[in-house]
Amino acid sequence: MKVNGITDIFFDLDHTLWDFDRNSALTFDKIFKLNEIDLKIEDFLFHYEPINLNYWKLYREERIDKKSLRFGRLNDAFLAIGKQINEDLIFKLSEDYITYLTTYNFLFENTIEVLAYLKKHYSLHIITNGFEEVQHKKLLKSNINGFFNTVTNSEMVGVKKPNPKIFNYALEKANAKAETSVMVGDSYEADILGAKNIGMDVVFFSNNGDNKTGVKQVNKLIELKEYL
Fold it and tell me: NCBIfam families attached here (predicted)?
């Protein structure tokens, strides 16, 4: 069922439009080869991915800073897999990861088609907790920057989703109103609950089959056409 009265759509970037897991895996494969680390990428990612999600949760809750996130997620993953890596190399890997991450820019299926369709009817925007310098490159190198009227990231505002300040900042920057805006994102806590708490409509993007009751949900981006 189409949602009426909407003028603005706000998207999360990572895990919603930009295929973070795929691009991240390719980046780790590259930097491990560059730094001559003999490790099966599948084994590393098995430990790294849940550790990374937990570190992002801590970062979102203002319990750690950017430097701690970048070092800690790698250090903990190597410890979990039983691989001895010295601190200097972990710092180098953390820098290499950021340097090479935007070498790969795979998007989720139908991203370009859906954005082109929505752009004809709505003003489109980004709200992201990602690091400013990296997110800007992702948008440019994946050729989707031109679809968005505004981009708001947490480093601009000093707080992260689901803090209402970042949503209110994004709305003001976009000259939009909460009651005529929709937030589309993959994080139920950060995107969906955060947006709902300030009166925005929401669409939960669940590409991994995670079902939530009481909210509009899509498993593929093309399904946004059912609502918007």
Answer: HAD-SF-IA-v1, YjjG_YfnB
